[in-house]
C-alpha cells in the first residue's frame, strides 16, 4: 500500500489534475501528470498518486483488482520517481481487466517514462566546458 502522504484522495485535487495536467495515453491506462506550484506545493510537498477505475470495467471485485494491481506497480516504482510536488492519476482503460501482471508493469513504467517522472529519464542539464576546461584534440 502507498504511504498516506503519497495518496491523492480529494475530488478537487483530481479535478485540478485533470484540468491542469498533461495526459499520456496507453492501451491499458492513461496517466495524468500535474505539477503543483506556489501554495499548493508548499502545503503538500510530496508527490501524490491517484487511481480511477470506471464502473464500466465491471463490478467492485473487478475494479478493486485493477486498482490493487496498479497500486502495487506504483509501490514498486515509488523510489524511482523524481522528487517534487506533482500529482499522478492513473485512469484504467477497458484492456486493464484482461491484462497480465507483466503487461501492467510494462505499461506503468512506459507511462512514467513518457510523463518524465522517473529519475533515470529526468531531463538533465549538461555542463558546457569553458575555454579553460577545453583541451584540444591535438594535446591529448
- Overall radius of gyration: 19 Å
Q: How would the global form be characterised?
A: globular
CATH architecture: 2-Layer Sandwich
CATH secondary-structure class: Alpha Beta
Along the chain, the helix and strand elements come as: HEEHEHEH
The major β-sheet equals: 4 strands, mixed
Query: Fraction of residues in helices?
Result: 25-40%
Mean pLDDT: 86
Task: Give the domain tally.
Answer: 1
Distance between the termini: 54 Å
Strand order of the largest sheet: 1-2-4-3
Low-confidence stretches: 124-130
Alpha-beta classification:
alpha+beta
Number of helices: 4
Give me the secondary-structure topology.
Elements: H1 11-20, E1 22-25, E2 29-35, H2 39-43, E3 48-52, H3 60-77, E4 86-92, H4 101-115
Parallel strand pairs: 3-4
Antiparallel strand pairs: 1-2, 2-4
Description:
With 140 residues, the chain is of the alpha+beta class. It has one domain (4-139): Ribosomal Protein S5, domain 2. Helices cover 34% and strands 16% of the residues. Strands 1-2-4-3 form a 4-stranded mixed sheet, with helices on both faces. α3 (60-77) links the parallel β3 and β4 (86-92). α3 (60-77) crosses α4. The protein is globular, with a radius of gyration of 19 Å. The termini are far apart. Mean pLDDT is 86; it is low at 124-130.
Q: How is this structure best summarized?
A:
This protein is of the alpha+beta class and 140 residues long. Helices cover 34% and strands 16% of the residues.
Amino acid at each position: 500500500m502507498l504511504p498516506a502522504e503519497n495518496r491523492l484522495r480529494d475530488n478537487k485535487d483530481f479535478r485540478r489534475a485533470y484540468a491542469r495536467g498533461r495526459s499520456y495515453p496507453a492501451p491499458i491506462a492513461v496517466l495524468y501528470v500535474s505539477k503543483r506550484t506556489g501554495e499548493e506545493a508548499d502545503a503538500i510537498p510530496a508527490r501524490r498518486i491517484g487511481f480511477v477505475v470506471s464502473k464500466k470495467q465491471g463490478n467492485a471485485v473487478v475494479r478493486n483488482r485493477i486498482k490493487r494491481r496498479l497500486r502495487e506497480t506504483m509501490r514498486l516504482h515509488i523510489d524511482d520517481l523524481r522528487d517534487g510536488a506533482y500529482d499522478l492519476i492513473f485512469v484504467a482503460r477497458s484492456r486493464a481487466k484482461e491484462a497480465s501482471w507483466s503487461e501492467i508493469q510494462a505499461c506503468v513504467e512506459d507511462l512514467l517514462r513518457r510523463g518524465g517522472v522517473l529519475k533515470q529519464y529526468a531531463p538533465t542539464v549538461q555542463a558546457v566546458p569553458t575555454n579553460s576546461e577545453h583541451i584540444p584534440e591535438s594535446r591529448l
